[in-house]
Amino acid sequence: MAEKVLMKGNEALGEAAICAGCRHFFGYPITPQTELAAYMAKKLPKIGGVFLQAESEIASINMVLGASAAGIRAMTSTSSPGISLMSEGISYMAGCDLPALLVNVQRGGPGLGGIQPSQSDYFQATKATGHGDFHLIVLAPSSVQEVVDLVFLAFELGEKYRMPAMLFSDGMLGQMMEPVELPEQGSFDPPERPWAVTGTKKQRKHNIVNSLYLDPALLEKTNFDRFERYEKCKATEQRWEEFMTEDADIVLVAYGASSRICRSAVVSARAEGIKVGLLRPITLWPFVTQPLDRLSNTAKAFISVEMSMGQMAEDISLAVNGRKPVHFYGRTGGIIPSPAEVIEQIRIVNGGFKK
Prior knowledge:
12 helices, alpha/beta
């Protein structure tokens, strides 16, 4: 077993990307993800990689597009407003069927907001990252070790389904330090990309990477084909963790930093005799409809706990489809809910069963 090292979340993310074979990073500094860009600026040139600080987030995402089209495992990172600026380029990447790792270390919003942790970019990541019909794979870690693990998964799934993958972090996970186990550098190599624009050497037909379709029938067929891949992804790639849900009357649903708070709340509520469990989505897209469908048969109620105004709660309600009530508790503006606040919401919902 590899020796564990103490690392900050943002820096562990960068090291994991390097271990996963990424040698090309294009980005622009913004708090609270700047340590990630700084880490890549320091490390990549030493191992023959490329770090380029673009003139803007708009430029950086188009550099990622170009690198990916050339068959290179590439990535970028930013924080909330930066994703908004990248949205056009992300849509172009989806239209070109290009994989890449996109990292959002979220901060509070809307607007400039604040640099404290937030989860208020959920709608943007899962429903409207850019114009047109497309999806991203969205992975939500809850620890620094999981940040490392999900970097590898993001690259793997993005390349399997030929679509951009987003690691959905936040200011808390990016700044906190925890022990992590890292694989050896170079132990993972990017797969072959037979569709990439790499030069033919007169041995094959030209590859064309493009998102422009002037023939509406061809564009429609391309969209239909792409959504067939999305359906396969939804059917096979949902990932989640459950904690004490077997006999739970109340199921908390929380991801990322919020799930850490909820795990403590579950233990405390159980000590009071309230049957509570936690469902932690790891994939936000595809959303975890499978466990929610199953738990709807046994639980009496769900509580979505978020650092937002209730964005994921809408997806929970859609998955539950009216079979059980879905409640919401959240903090915003960079405030993290406390275990005591969550326990109080559990008591309120539990009290409603007795009326």
